[in-house]
Design brief:
The structure is a single chain. This protein has 482 residues and is of the alpha/beta class. The protein folds into two domains: 11-177, Rossmann fold (3-Layer(aba) Sandwich), CATH 3.40.50; 182-479, L-fucose Isomerase, Chain A, domain 3 (Alpha-Beta Barrel), CATH 3.20.14. 36% of the residues lie in helices and 24% in strands. It has 16 helices and 19 strands. It has helices spanning 21-25, 29-45, 60-71, 92-97, 120-125, 132-141, 158-177, 199-206, 215-222, 227-240, 257-276, 293-298, 301-310, 321-332, 439-448, 463-472, and strands at residues 11-17, 50-57, 77-82, 102-108, 148-153, 182-186, 212-213, 252-254, 281-285, 315-316, 336-346, 351-356, 370-374, 384-388, 394-403, 409-419, 429-434, 455-459, 476-479. A six-stranded antiparallel β-barrel has the order 11-12-17-16-15-18. Strands 2-1-3-4-5 form a five-stranded parallel sheet, with helices on both faces. A hairpin with a 5-residue loop joins β15 and β16. α7 (158-177) crosses α14, α7 (158-177) crosses α16 (463-472) and α10 packs across α11. The longest helix is centred in the middle third of the chain and has 20 residues, at 158-177. It starts with 10 loop residues before the first strand and ends with a strand. The model has no long low-confidence stretch (mean pLDDT 94). One of its GO terms (molecular function) is isomerase activity. Residues 337-475 form the L-arabinose isomerase C-terminal domain. Keywords: Arabinose catabolism, Carbohydrate metabolism, Isomerase, Manganese, Metal-binding.
Length: 482
């Protein structure tokens, strides 16, 4: 029912390398290697990306010419296809000049050589690994880095395909970071020192722009919303969410018509607001005077934000732009990205509640999410519709973005398991998070790493993939181990 506003995509550059002396010695070898190159490109294409092929680079002159082509190709990552042995002179100009992730791919056509029947040509067709150490060594001598090396077989190698797919997913994150606009609106919730972030530092670290917006900018759009648009949005909300009666929390009520109307009007407003300011995401917080339009509108953001999260636009409360970017990274990896923090432990069953009262990524909900009316938002001004659901059962990943004493950003990464079981019926999202060796020991390691109290929550185990994104962005990271 809720589809992405913008499909995930990336531009993947590929080129092959070889030693041109072979062409005269072994007629037809170049043509055969290029057939293997086409097979490799098919594997890349399967990941829903645009592939730009820079062909065979077998002379240093071609390498220098290719640099200019690649620079103009708006490439997100570059696969160097190690087709056979090649001298590092065809690689050095490329690794020296480019500032994009370059991955060496050494996929030999045969799983093994039949030594009793093998010949030199067969060896050359399967010499994909031969010059890999030469290439990585030259990169290091030039003060550069080969981002990864993928080793395997060209045909029916699921591990190699998974490794290629992982880099294509990373490329989709990098692609959408370019020129992204993460808006900031309002101010930090009073006394939350961990939420502050310098927009210039954000722009520098992630290559994005941070437009500074006013609540009045939202109100100007709010006044343009029609009753027809509100009715249409209300129908969508009621299709997406259950609206049960209260259970145990006296703060909750069955969703009221007034709260549905306010949430629907604000959801339409946010759709238009995001479009008007061309936002990739938004971090916000604002108190407003009691009974003011400012407070009424901002306190009814949660439902509209959660719908936008599912559409690929991360919307983050409490002015937390760092977690907004963490949510964006998870969304572009297609693993969710809910706004989360830690809630009470269950020391008997060894889990901790993981969730928040703010916007969530309903695409990773376990079943149909619930919409309740809250008489008050605890710790914050206002009242209204709020979302409650559990994360899908299975592996989960946490990404917190924090800063060290010198202002540098750092990724804090963790992995656990979301397991079946009830959650408190409080109108807040929660899931039962289990961690090894015990949840208490793991959470202690997490908090000692110096995170902020928020993080993005996604499905699956993807800490290693996100760590690679940190490396590409030259950002420190720490994976909390059990």
């Amino acid at each position: 029912m809720v589809e992405r506003l913008k499909q995930r995509n990336a531009r993947i550059g590929v080129f092959g390398v070889a030693h041109p002396v072979y062409w005269g010695q072994f007629p037809g070898l170049e043509e055969q290697l290029m057939k293997y190159h086409e097979e490799f490109k098919k594997i890349v294409y399967e990941n829903g990306v645009d592939v730009v092929d820079f062909g065979m680079i077998d002379y240093s002159e071609k390498a220098f010419a290719a640099v200019e082509e690649i620079k103009g190709g708006r490439i997100d990552i570059l696969f160097c296809n190690m087709l056979t042995y090649a001298t590092s002179s065809v690689f050095a100009p490329i690794i020296r000049a480019l500032d994009i992730p370059i991955i060496l791919v050494a996929l030999q056509p045969r799983r093994q050589l039949e030594c009793e029947e093998a010949n030199t040509r067969q060896q050359l067709e399967n010499d994909n690994i031969c010059s890999v150490p030469e290439f990585t060594g030259v990169a290091i001598r030039m003060g550069k880095k080969v981002q990864d090396v993928i080793i395997g077989v060209l045909y029916d190698d699921n591990e190699a395909k998974t490794n290629i797919s992982e880099w294509c997913e990373i490329a989709k994150v990098l692609h959408d970071l370019k020129g992204a606009r993460f808006g900031l609106m309002g101010h930090v919730l009073e006394a939350m020192y961990d939420m502050h972030a310098d927009p210039t530092a954000i722009a520098d670290a992630f290559g994005v722009h941070v437009p500074l917006l006013e609540v009045d900018d939202v109100l100007a759009v709010y006044e343009t919303v029609t009753e027809e648009e509100i009715e249409e949005k209300s129908r969508l909300i009621l299709e997406c969410f259950d609206t049960p009666v209260p259970v145990s929390d006296p703060l909750t009520m069955k969703l009221t018509e007034e709260d549905l109307y306010n949430a629907s009007k604000t959801a339409v407003t946010l759709d238009k607001f995001v479009e008007k300011y061309n936002l990739t995401g938004l971090a916000y917080y604002y108190n407003g005077r009691p009974d003011s339009n400012h407070r009424q509108v901002v306190s009814s953001f949660i439902v509209g934000n959660s719908l936008l999260n599912a559409e690929g636009i991360p919307m983050c409360g409490e002015f937390d732009i760092k977690t907004c970017i963490a949510m964006f990274i998870m969304d572009r990896l297609n693993i969710g990205g809910s706004f989360a923090e830690f809630h009470p432990f269950d020391f008997d069953e060894d889990y901790i509640m993981v969730g928040h009262d703010g916007p969530h990524h309903i695409a990773i909900a376990d079943g149909k999410p619930v919409l309740r009316s809250l008489k008050k938002f605890h710790g914050k001004p206002g009242s209204g519709a709020s979302i409650e659901f559990k994360i899908k059962e299975g592996p989960i990943t946490m990404l917190g973005i924090t800063q060290s004493y010198d202002g540098k950003f750092k990724f804090i990464l963790g992995e656990g398991i979301s397991k079946h079981g009830p959650i408190p019926p409080t109108g807040n999202t929660n899931t039962r998070g289990f961690f090894e060796p015990t949840t208490k020991e793991y959470i202690k390691k997490w908090v000692m790493a110096g995170p902020t109290h928020h993080y993005a929550l996604g499905v699956g185990h993807h800490a290693d993939t996100i760590a690679k994104i940190a490396e590409v962005l030259h950002i420190d990271y720490e994976i909390i181990k059990s």
